[in-house]
Amino acid sequence: MRALDRQPEAPLLEVAAWDAGLAIAAADAGWPDDGMLVPLNLGAAESCQAGAGAWPVLPPDELLPAEARFAVVRAPHWLGRAGVEWVVRAAARALPPGGLLALLGDRARGVESLRRRLPPIIGPIVDRAAGEHRRLYLYERQVEDPPPQQFAWTSTQRIAGRDVTLCQHPTLFSPTRVDPATALLAEYLPDKDGRWLDLGCGSGVLTVAAARSDRNLTALDWSYAAVETTRRTLAASGIEAEVLLADGAPPGEQPFDVILCYPPFHVGPRVHHGPAARLIRAARDCLAPDGELRVVLTSAQSPRDLLQPHFRDVSQVASAHGARVFSCRPPTAARGRGR
Ligand SMILES: C[S@@+](CC[C@H](N)C(=O)[O-])C[C@H]1O[C@@H](n2cnc3c(N)ncnc32)[C@H](O)[C@@H]1O
């Protein structure tokens, strides 16, 4: 904005914020200290809260129409095309006519092709700035009623030999089809009853695959959209389960007899194993002493690094298309181990 020599009008807004950068930059630049940050999951919310000061940190469904005057989207390219568009629409809806939206991104990550898709959703580009690799486009909201997003919000998919109606959301993992690793895990579930946890449930596909009258199901994710989407997926099949918004292990719950998990991974030249390791440790900490973690890993994830330090009896159950399903038993003292 300094490059454009503009001072944004308050309230400011960032959708899909993953840190408090906007609030801190606004304070540094002497912009009005009035804004809000809207992260997509609890991990991002925690990072936002670390520096948000007086700015509220809100889940996306608490954002009201025309609540902001100036919105920022740092293109979250890892969400894919439909996910990024969802974020832009959410930001555009929060602006009144005449409000401004700043889109920032890298050339190498496709920000220029994104730029061309946005005028029908928001309105024209009214200003721009360029760094060596970075681009900033400033749009003015002129579109009264943005056209609906081209996205299949439900689909029927075959999972472990059954046709299942799945609800989907563009910001979730594998939003248009069941990922082959998910399908593999769904095919190789343990034949057990008791308390089951789908840890990192996404759209709820593994909870649906696990549904059986002798199982008590809990689905958990830290993404706001995942929790809402899983609830809808389960309702579409009449499946009862507790669905929780939480970061890692559900607070204050009884230990689980079976935990299903497809831990997160990041596609790109560098793979970050921290988020997966964090979820695996959470699984270890809420498993019953004779329980089992059934987990699927991609070809970039190592059972030696992710599973063996935390479990005894790590054994491979199935493998296909580079994905591998493992069965893991907790260490003898299952709960309360240090991180
Ligand atoms: C690879 S996706 C798998 C989603 C779903 N189980 C499937 O197979 O389609 C990983 C999921 O874990 C969730 N997740 C990542 N870290 C988490 C955490 N610390 N607490 C809760 N959920 C988390 C993500 O939001 C995402 O939905």
Estimated helix fraction: 10-25%
The main sheet comes to:
7 strands, mixed
C-alpha termini separation: 42 Å
Give the strand tally.
15
- Helical segment count: 9
Low-confidence runs of at least 5 consecutive residues = 334-339
Shape: elongated
Radius of gyration, whole Å: 22 Å
Rounded mean pLDDT score: 93
Assess the beta-strand content as a share of residues.
25-35%
Structural class: alpha/beta
CATH superfamily of the largest domain, please? Vaccinia Virus protein VP39
State the domain count.
2
The unique ligands bound to this protein are: S-adenosylmethionine
CATH class of the largest domain: Alpha Beta
Q: How do the strands of the widest beta sheet line up side by side?
A: 11-10-9-12-13-15-14
Helix-strand sequence:
EHEHEHEHEEEEHEHEHEEHEHEE
CATH topology name of the largest domain: Rossmann fold
- CATH arch. level architecture of the largest domain: 3-Layer(aba) Sandwich
Q: How is this structure best summarized?
A:
With about 350 residues, the protein is α/β, with parallel strands linked by helices. About 25% of the residues lie in helices and about 30% in strands.
